Amino acid sequence: MADKAPAAGSLPQGCDVIVVGGGLVGLSSAWHLAKRGLSVCLLERDYCGRHSSGVNAGGVRTMGRHEAEIPLALASRDDIWRVGQEVVGQDLGFVSCGQLQVLETDQDVQNAQQRVQQLASLGYHHEVMISQEEVRALVPAMAPHVRGGIWVEGDGHAWPYGAVMAFYQAAQAAGVHIHENHCVTQVRQRGSNWVVSARGQTFTAPALVNAAGAWAGQLAQQLGDPVPVTADGLMLMVTQRTASFLSPVLGGSSRPLSLKQFANGTVVIGGGLRCQPNLTDRVADVDLLSLAPSAHTVRSLFPHLAQLPVAHAWGGVEAFLPDGIPVLGPSRNDAHVIHAFGFSAHGFELGPIAGRIVSELLCDGTSRLPIAPFSVGRFF
Ligand SMILES: Cc1cc2nc3c(=O)[nH]c(=O)nc-3n(C[C@H](O)[C@H](O)[C@H](O)COP(=O)(O)OP(=O)(O)OC[C@H]3O[C@@H](n4cnc5c(N)ncnc54)[C@H](O)[C@@H]3O)c2cc1C
């Protein structure tokens, strides 16, 4: 591929790579590609970070990952999130406060022991069992019925929109041309080039990245890879400020839960809370009744929060694949087309490494990390 960067201020209709989608995955891909010397044009239908990447819970979690995702999750956290300023040249806002999975029943403890042993047999030791006393030392306000936990020391959280903007600025500084309010409506092949139509303009490049999140299925279909990707709404709620009581990020075991307290005292509550998405209007409306079970879980773990008012709730549209892991790899039809979508509610943490993998596939023809389980071919 050509080894050139576009002149500052120009609007290249032709470039080395077109990235569709300005979420964390698209921006990270664009930045990594530009760092490798390619000219990159990123097309985003709304504004960058408008969807999942900018509205999620900010969990940077290697805990509880599907086996295939573990090497990627560890590399994303250790090679990029933890050293954002050094590597990306921007503060990604990562707070390394640890992640604690709460074990509330004997069955939870038994399942957790099996999980930790299974990981150890695969050579992974980042998830460790901790006792009831250790849980209490980490989170003194926790209800006494909690029997123990799984602890991951290096996990944490970041501010989603801030992280998106960090990659946006890094990409721009590296020469990426970012076109917001540019909806890709058609993609076709002309010779060795891909011709992409967006907002009445035509962009051409020999390589294409499909990072269109919940809308990636339409593009994949046009590219000859009809993947069973579906969209669903995910909700979060945030409380008013309260005195500091929680340092690590909490996750549930038998009950869905994701809970963290930010430095300003607000508490963000989630845990896979689903609502109906509207793909045409590109929104996911909050379903207040479905938030109630999560609020109940939080109250039972932290009775002192019973009267804490919820200040705000919101939803975002996310892409899900049937096996819960993304498609990350080349199209079946052209090695210069890379799919990176379907992160199934946990792609914020993986976004930075997904971009590095995309750049390796296009620049080196292979990825340093194992990505065979994410092949688009698994659905055919
Ligand atoms: C409420 C919520 C909580 C979450 N919590 C966490 C968490 O704590 N930790 C975690 O790891 N993950 C979490 N996730 C999941 C995570 O946010 C996503 O997996 C990740 O952000 C996906 O990034 P993406 O770049 O693939 O998609 P997106 O951020 O959705 O970006 C895709 C972009 O493509 C654009 N696009 C689509 N079609 C076109 C087109 N035709 N032309 C041009 N542009 C197009 C869209 O406008 C969009 O901006 C959560 C998600 C939600 C919704």
Structure description:
With 380 residues, this protein is an alpha+beta fold. The chain folds into two domains: 17-58 and 161-228 and 323-379, FAD/NAD(P)-binding domain, CATH 3.50.50; 99-153 and 230-320, D-Amino Acid Oxidase, subunit A, domain 2 (D-Amino Acid Oxidase, Chain A, domain 2, 2-Layer Sandwich). Helices cover 29% and strands 27% of the residues. The protein has ten helices and 21 strands. The chain has helices at 24-35, 52-55, 70-81, 84-88, 106-121, 132-138, 160-173, 216-222, 288-301, 347-364; strands spanning 17-20, 40-43, 59-60, 99-103, 128-131, 148-152, 156-157, 177-179, 184-190, 193-198, 201-205, 207-210, 230-239, 249-251, 258-261, 267-275, 277-278, 283-284, 310-320, 327-330, 337-341. It is globular, with a radius of gyration of 21 Å. Mean pLDDT is 95; it is low at 1-12. The site of flavin-adenine dinucleotide (FAD) has 40 residues, from helix 1, helix 2, strand 13, strand 19 and helix 10. Flavin-adenine dinucleotide (FAD) is lined by residues 20-26, 43-46, 50-53, 55-59, 183-184, 211-215, 234, 236, 270, 316, 318, 341, 343, 345-349, 351.
Brief descriptors of the model:
eight-stranded mixed sheet; D-Amino Acid Oxidase, Chain A, domain 2; 2 domains; FAD/NAD(P)-binding domain; 21 strands; 380 residues; binds flavin-adenine dinucleotide; alpha+beta; six-stranded mixed sheet; 10 helices
